[in-house]
Design brief:
By secondary structure, the protein is α/β, with parallel strands linked by helices. The protein is built from 15 helices and nine strands.
């Protein structure tokens, strides 16, 4: 059974109603459970759980220390292109937006990478819009091969591929995939994606499984917070994560928490997620997924990121730019969205250390895969 088969057994509206009906007794039962099930996640995401944020946070903190210690992995994105054929209503790359379009050459990509390498990064995330004529699999693979000498880990956040496409990426040197479903509400998904290949809900939903089958070592998922109800979206992210962890146990799973940020087009969140609710969903997912990486980007403010580190976060971006060529002097008009935490990588690293944690620039090397003896 793939995750699409499992998802079709759930009704989005019914799931939300079940979450909202959970009682304080259900929350206490979930907090006391040794191993939590989807029904427990519903309780932890419920309105009733808002009165239990402190014990949820304490448990999330203890679990994270047990599984990850005091380590925060730092990474940075490199935007290769903002060209796109999709009409995502919430995205600055929307094909209908009249913004300058740019796809970097291999030389420009390497120049961006050199800047990040000098800052100390050894983990990078390559990001593009969905415009295969501007940047296809072959060009992306060529870029990865160009960057392999600089980085120990290269992940991609690009258009969904066939399994063979992901195998091509693995052969080139990619070890991680990040891909957000955006919303697990099929009706809302259709409204948010009026045209373009991304309109295909099922094709996108199953991409992480194709990546896992292709041998990617890291798989990251998430929902774009602010589109659907945060309670239902977080539940389906957790359900999706459980499925992937069972079927692709050789891959390390991570979950991201992107909240909608200001972007070209002026899209406003349909269901804004407050800071307390943001904390609740992060703690709830940590309690469900004790071994998953939890990722926090520069979409969030410096103040909030500082305070979320002890609650289960294991990976953070730093010094990010969301425009192609941004690290070497790109134009803000080409950015995907505005970041909120604009501290330098060194400042973020120092803050992490001041909280008693270790800023980790490298936790993997492809040499680990080399067969010896």
């Amino acid at each position: 059974m793939n995750f699409l088969d499992q998802l079709t057994t759930y009704d989005y509206t019914d799931v939300l109603a079940r979450i909202e009906a959970k009682s304080a007794t259900d929350v206490e039962r979930a907090l006391a459970a040794e191993r939590r099930r989807p029904e427990d996640l519903m309780a932890l995401l419920s309105p009733a759980a808002e009165a239990y944020l402190e014990p949820m946070a304490q448990q999330a903190h203890r679990l994270t220390l047990q599984r990850f210690g005091r380590n925060i992995l730092l990474y940075a994105p490199i935007y290769l292109s903002n060209e796109c054929t999709n009409g995502c209503r919430y995205c600055g790359f929307n094909a209908g937006n009249r913004v300058p379009r740019r796809t970097l050459t291999l030389e420009e990509i390497e120049a961006e990478a050199q800047v990040l390498h000098r800052h100390g990064f050894r983990h990078v995330l390559l990001v593009t819009g969905e415009a295969p004529r501007a940047l296809d699999n072959d060009l992306l693979a060529a870029a990865v091969r160009r960057l392999r000498p600089l980085f120990s880990s290269i992940s991609i956040e690009v258009y969904p591929m066939e399994e063979d496409g992901y195998r091509q990426m693995v052969a080139a040197g990619v070890d991680g995939l990040t891909l957000y479903q955006e919303t697990y509400d099929r009706r809302l998904y259709a409204e948010m994606h009026p045209f373009g290949k991304k309109r295909d809900f099922d094709w996108r939903l199953l991409a992480p499984e194709r990546g896992g089958a292709a041998g990617l070592r890291r798989i990251g998922i998430g929902a774009l917070l602010g589109l659907g109800s945060f309670r239902a979206e977080a539940f389906f992210v957790g359900l999706h994560a459980l499925h992937l962890s069972r079927h692709f146990w050789r891959s390390h799973l991570s979950v991201s928490f992107p909240r909608i940020r200001p972007a070209e087009g002026g899209f406003a969140p349909l269901h804004p997620v407050s800071d307390p609710r943001f904390v609740q969903l992060i703690c709830a997912l940590r309690l469900l997924l004790p071994d998953a990486g939890l990722v926090l980007s520069t979409r969030e403010s410096a103040h909030l990121r500082n305070h979320l580190i002890p609650l289960g976060i294991t990976q953070m971006s730093a010094g990010s730019c969301t425009a192609p060529g941004g690290y070497t002097g790109g134009d803000d008009e080409t950015r995907q969205f505005a970041i909120d935490d604009d501290r330098t990588p060194a400042q973020v690293s120092e803050l992490i250390r001041s909280l008693g944690y270790e800023a980790v620039w490298k936790d993997w090397d492809r040499a680990f895969l080399d067969k010896t003896g």
